[in-house]
């Protein structure tokens, strides 16, 4: 609309637009430290009623401004990369944390570790070979053997305790996955309805982005944006969230509801209205924190426990065999020094002899004071080397995870910085926007005042002549 009254609408549109700009800048400043908040920017659109026509001509010069949209400053591609890299970082950091804790429990190298106890036992046998009749030397062998058995049992208990903790951890993660998936599906529906009603859903979108990121960290989930703006979330290639529906993420086997092992392989399943699907195992299965816990429970800790059991079995077998080849202080054939149950493993290792005189230090019968067999016992078996290889392998795994985690943290940090530059609130920038909107609002108000004076002259003073 051209003319003076049209100019009032133009001034009014400037007041309304800049009021929105002030509100948006103030909201950005208020949420500068809110987790997940994405800054907004007002996008204006010029207003005009000009229409293409053959026999008419628009003689106006624009009719002001209107709010085209309040845009969330996000980049879908960057958001997708952030979710993917955070999922991998969560996987690596969780694996590293668990194995580093196991490594701390091993205590190698150190004076109180299993390897030190092995060397102490071999030294005790060597001392006994030099003094086969000495009661103190025999008692020292039994003491060192008990220390070694206790160190191996303790380490086996540490591994079993870590496995128990991680089973409970897996149950908690599954519960959190279901909570996040249900929340994201509900937000899908709320956002769709809200925007269809013409209401801004920016806050709901912020919350949904946070849940999508958390699902990526928990399971390595992949989020896809559909044509209607809703998120579809897949875990290991299986849909977990579709529109307003969320499937149930289920721990199918491997762990009981109480957190105990049920003897079956660890597996997961998604139950939903569109079907029930068992997720693949191994590298093709869930990622993120849950994937790390699953790998530790199914591969890394069982492998270390099996290595520890093999060391204990070798220790018991070689020492007992060499004991049987010698003679004790009474001249009888040597009895087994260690008892070991292969079905239980290192946790079952015990010293079977309580009488020091039963140690088979001699290589000849008849009660001769001979220490040749004790000398052989000090060198029997390869269990120290096997244990050292086992511990070195664990240390190498932890060191490799340290490097990978540091590299991944650097990459994720760079992506977070890039996203923060776009979506984060810069207080200096918002202050400039606020002042600019303030000045524009004042100018629009001044325009309104000027037009009021013009109309007052036009209406109330036109035609009056001085007398």
UniProtKB/TrEMBL annotation:
One Pfam family matching this protein: FlgK_D1
Cell compartments where the protein resides: Bacterial flagellum; Secreted
Matches recorded under InterPro entries: Flag_bb_rod_N (IPR001444), Flg_bb/hook_C_dom (IPR010930), FlgK (IPR002371), FlgK_helical (IPR053927)
Stretches assigned to the Flagellar basal-body/hook protein C-terminal domain: 422-460
Keyword DNA-binding carried by entry: no
Swiss-Prot/TrEMBL keywords: Bacterial flagellum, Cell projection, Cilium, Flagellum, Secreted
Flagellar hook-associated protein FlgK helical domain boundaries: 100-338
Protein family (similarity comment): Belongs to the flagella basal body rod proteins family.
PANTHER family for the chain: FLAGELLAR HOOK PROTEIN, FLAGELLAR HOOK-ASSOCIATED PROTEIN 1
Protein name: Flagellar hook-associated protein 1
Gene that this polypeptide is encoded by: flgK
